[in-house]
Amino acid sequence: MAVMITQECINCDACAPECPVAAILPDDNEKNPHEGVKFYVKPESCVECVSHADTPRCAEACPTEGSIVWDMPYSTEFNEYYATGHEEGRYAIREHKSKGLMLPEVKAQASISDIPMDLRLSHSNVMDSF
Ligand code: SF4
Ligand code: SF4
Protein backbone atom coordinates (compact mmCIF):
# COMPACT_ATOMS: atom_id res chain seq x y z
CA MET A 1 0.00 0.00 0.00
CA ALA A 2 -0.75 2.19 -0.51
CA VAL A 3 -4.13 3.64 -0.33
CA MET A 4 -7.10 2.43 1.65
CA ILE A 5 -10.87 2.70 1.33
CA THR A 6 -12.84 4.04 4.28
CA GLN A 7 -16.38 3.80 5.63
CA GLU A 8 -17.26 6.81 3.43
CA CYS A 9 -17.34 4.42 0.44
CA ILE A 10 -20.76 4.22 -1.21
CA ASN A 11 -19.94 1.06 -3.22
CA CYS A 12 -20.37 2.78 -6.57
CA ASP A 13 -17.71 0.71 -8.41
CA ALA A 14 -16.07 3.70 -10.12
CA CYS A 15 -12.61 2.81 -8.76
CA ALA A 16 -12.11 -0.93 -9.30
CA PRO A 17 -12.15 -0.91 -13.14
CA GLU A 18 -9.55 1.90 -13.10
CA CYS A 19 -6.92 -0.02 -11.13
CA PRO A 20 -4.04 -1.13 -13.39
CA VAL A 21 -3.15 -4.03 -11.09
CA ALA A 22 -6.64 -5.25 -10.11
CA ALA A 23 -5.99 -4.43 -6.45
CA ILE A 24 -9.55 -3.37 -5.57
CA LEU A 25 -12.19 -5.86 -4.45
CA PRO A 26 -15.89 -5.02 -4.49
CA ASP A 27 -18.06 -5.26 -1.39
CA ASP A 28 -19.49 -8.64 -2.44
CA ASN A 29 -16.13 -10.36 -2.97
CA GLU A 30 -15.49 -13.19 -0.50
CA LYS A 31 -11.82 -12.20 -0.20
CA ASN A 32 -12.82 -8.73 0.98
CA PRO A 33 -12.39 -8.68 4.80
CA HIS A 34 -15.02 -5.94 4.95
CA GLU A 35 -17.48 -7.91 2.79
CA GLY A 36 -20.89 -6.28 2.53
CA VAL A 37 -19.65 -2.96 3.87
CA LYS A 38 -17.29 -1.24 1.42
CA PHE A 39 -14.77 -1.81 -1.34
CA TYR A 40 -11.28 -2.96 -0.28
CA VAL A 41 -7.75 -2.29 -1.56
CA LYS A 42 -5.38 -5.25 -1.33
CA PRO A 43 -2.24 -3.62 0.14
CA GLU A 44 0.01 -6.45 -1.13
CA SER A 45 -1.06 -5.58 -4.71
CA CYS A 46 -1.42 -1.78 -4.75
CA VAL A 47 1.51 0.07 -6.31
CA GLU A 48 0.00 3.57 -5.86
CA CYS A 49 -0.14 3.62 -9.66
CA VAL A 50 3.65 4.15 -9.84
CA SER A 51 4.74 3.54 -13.47
CA HIS A 52 1.07 3.56 -14.54
CA ALA A 53 -0.21 7.10 -13.91
CA ASP A 54 0.77 10.42 -12.30
CA THR A 55 -1.95 10.16 -9.66
CA PRO A 56 -3.68 7.13 -8.14
CA ARG A 57 -6.36 6.29 -10.68
CA CYS A 58 -8.83 4.95 -8.13
CA ALA A 59 -8.81 8.20 -6.16
CA GLU A 60 -9.19 10.23 -9.31
CA ALA A 61 -12.30 8.26 -10.25
CA CYS A 62 -13.90 8.26 -6.79
CA PRO A 63 -16.85 10.68 -6.38
CA THR A 64 -16.81 10.57 -2.58
CA GLU A 65 -14.46 12.85 -0.61
CA GLY A 66 -12.56 10.91 2.04
CA SER A 67 -13.28 7.44 0.62
CA ILE A 68 -9.78 6.79 -0.68
CA VAL A 69 -7.06 7.83 1.74
CA TRP A 70 -3.35 7.27 2.22
CA ASP A 71 -2.03 4.27 4.08
CA MET A 72 1.57 3.34 4.90
CA PRO A 73 4.01 2.24 2.18
CA TYR A 74 4.07 -1.51 1.60
CA SER A 75 7.76 -1.68 2.54
CA THR A 76 9.76 -3.77 5.02
CA GLU A 77 9.77 -0.83 7.43
CA PHE A 78 6.01 -1.34 7.84
CA ASN A 79 6.00 -5.12 7.92
CA GLU A 80 4.75 -5.26 11.51
CA TYR A 81 2.04 -2.67 10.79
CA TYR A 82 0.57 -4.87 8.05
CA ALA A 83 1.10 -8.13 9.98
CA THR A 84 -0.85 -6.70 12.93
CA GLY A 85 -3.54 -5.30 10.63
CA HIS A 86 -3.92 -8.74 9.08
CA GLU A 87 -4.23 -10.41 12.48
CA GLU A 88 -6.83 -7.87 13.55
CA GLY A 89 -8.89 -8.28 10.35
CA ARG A 90 -8.30 -4.86 8.80
CA TYR A 91 -6.41 -6.50 5.93
CA ALA A 92 -6.62 -9.93 4.34
CA ILE A 93 -3.08 -10.43 3.02
CA ARG A 94 -2.82 -13.16 0.40
CA GLU A 95 -1.35 -16.50 1.50
CA HIS A 96 1.09 -17.95 -1.02
CA LYS A 97 1.43 -21.76 -1.16
CA SER A 98 5.18 -21.83 -0.57
CA LYS A 99 6.06 -18.26 0.45
CA GLY A 100 3.36 -17.92 3.11
CA LEU A 101 1.72 -14.59 3.93
CA MET A 102 2.73 -12.04 1.27
CA LEU A 103 3.80 -9.39 3.78
CA PRO A 104 6.22 -6.58 2.75
CA GLU A 105 9.22 -8.61 3.97
CA VAL A 106 8.28 -11.24 1.35
CA LYS A 107 7.36 -8.82 -1.43
CA ALA A 108 7.40 -5.05 -1.01
CA GLN A 109 5.47 -2.82 -3.42
CA ALA A 110 6.15 0.55 -5.01
CA SER A 111 4.86 3.71 -3.37
CA ILE A 112 4.98 7.42 -4.20
CA SER A 113 8.10 8.62 -2.41
CA ASP A 114 7.21 12.26 -1.79
CA ILE A 115 3.99 11.79 0.16
CA PRO A 116 4.73 13.10 3.69
CA MET A 117 4.54 10.44 6.37
CA ASP A 118 2.16 12.52 8.51
CA LEU A 119 -0.41 12.45 5.68
CA ARG A 120 -0.11 8.68 5.54
CA LEU A 121 -0.36 8.29 9.31
CA SER A 122 -3.46 10.47 9.47
CA HIS A 123 -5.02 8.65 6.47
CA SER A 124 -5.63 11.90 4.66
CA ASN A 125 -7.65 12.17 1.45
CA VAL A 126 -5.46 11.08 -1.49
CA MET A 127 -6.65 13.69 -3.98
CA ASP A 128 -5.78 16.53 -1.56
CA SER A 129 -2.10 15.73 -2.31
CA PHE A 130 -2.41 16.61 -6.01
S1 SF4 B 1 -3.56 3.53 -6.16
FE1 SF4 B 1 -3.49 2.63 -8.21
S2 SF4 B 1 -2.68 0.57 -7.85
FE2 SF4 B 1 -3.42 1.29 -5.87
S3 SF4 B 1 -5.53 0.58 -5.72
FE3 SF4 B 1 -5.59 2.66 -6.57
S4 SF4 B 1 -5.66 2.35 -8.77
FE4 SF4 B 1 -4.92 0.42 -7.86
S1 SF4 C 1 -15.08 4.95 -6.26
FE1 SF4 C 1 -15.02 5.59 -4.11
S2 SF4 C 1 -17.15 5.44 -3.39
FE2 SF4 C 1 -17.00 4.28 -5.33
S3 SF4 C 1 -16.58 2.15 -4.71
FE3 SF4 C 1 -14.60 3.13 -5.04
S4 SF4 C 1 -13.98 3.93 -3.02
FE4 SF4 C 1 -16.16 3.46 -2.93
- Under the CATH scheme, the architecture is 2-Layer Sandwich
Question: What overall form do the CA principal axes indicate?
Answer: globular
Beginning-to-end CA distance, first to last residue = 18 Å
Number of domains: 1
Number of strands: 6
Total helices: the number is 3
The secondary-structure element order is EEEHEHEEH
**The top level CATH class name:** Alpha Beta
**Proportion of strand residues:** 5-15%
Low-confidence stretches: none
Task: Describe, in plain words, how this protein is organized in 3D.
With 130 residues, the chain is largely without helices or strands. It is 15% helix and 11% strand. The strands form 3 sheets. Strands 1-4 form a two-stranded antiparallel ribbon. Strand 5 (95-96) and strand 6 (100-101) form a beta hairpin. The longest helix is centred in the middle third of the chain and has 9 residues, at 79-87. The protein is globular, with a radius of gyration of 14 Å. Bound molecules: iron/sulfur cluster (2 copies).
